[in-house]
Design a protein that fits this description.
Order of helices and strands: HEEHHEHEEEEHEEH
Low-confidence stretches: none
Strand content: 25-35%
Shape: globular
Strand order of the largest sheet: 1-2-3-7-6
Oligomer: single chain
Number of domains: 1
């Protein structure tokens, strides 16, 4: 997938005009890209449209209009776009109660190193930038990628294999298979 370019970013006023339709389309698409992984974690498989939406929403919410700040947002979010042969996720630890969330983030230290994607019999460890992660805790949001083998890419495109997110952490171990509709979205991403 190609990175987002500055020419694709609408000024806030123009974005407001198309936002209801664009937002509705992305929310509908994200429903098929979102997966609950146990009781407290979910992932969203990212693609070019979800990233463009995040950039536009960030500029809108933060009222960002300076060119250097816009360029920074584009560069930051472009890191979420998967390269050829990759799938990209945003992982969320979702616990509304602040005290319980804090306890869980400490218990889940190292979570970012415990995530994998299974495609049939192959398993691909997640990788990403863990610069802000402290050794005694994890963070509530992670941006991760999976580099798939050619065989796994073809299996996804052909819808021939079960695809699942795996978490293999001592305090949180789960296998969450994707629905066929979700695999369809990944097949589009790898197409």
């Amino acid at each position: 997938m190609q990175p987002i370019t500055r020419g694709e970013i609408l000024p806030i006023a123009e974005y407001e005009l198309i936002r209801p339709h664009f937002r509705s389309r992305i929310i509908s698409d994200k429903k098929l890209r979102r997966l609950a992984v146990g009781d407290h974690i979910s992932v969203v498989f990212e693609n070019r449209d979800t990233v463009l939406y995040q950039i536009q929403e960030m500029l809108r919410t933060e009222r960002i209009t300076s060119e250097p700040a816009i360029a920074h947002e584009i560069a930051t979010y472009n890191d979420l776009i998967p390269a050829p042969g990759q799938l990209s996720i945003t992982l969320f630890v979702e616990i509304p109660d602040a005290a319980l969330r804090e306890k869980m983030l400490i218990e889940l230290a190292g979570l970012e190193h415990s995530i994998a994607l299974a495609v049939g019999d192959e398993v691909f460890a997640a990788h990403g930038s863990f610069a802000g992660v402290m050794p005694d805790r994890t963070t509530a949001v992670h941006y991760l990628k999976f580099d798939l083998s050619l065989s796994a890419q073809q299996q996804v495109r052909d819808r021939r294999a079960e695809v699942a997110i795996l978490i293999r952490h001592p305090k949180y171990s789960v296998r969450a298979p994707l629905s066929l509709a979700s695999v369809e979205k990944l097949a589009e991403d790898l197409g």
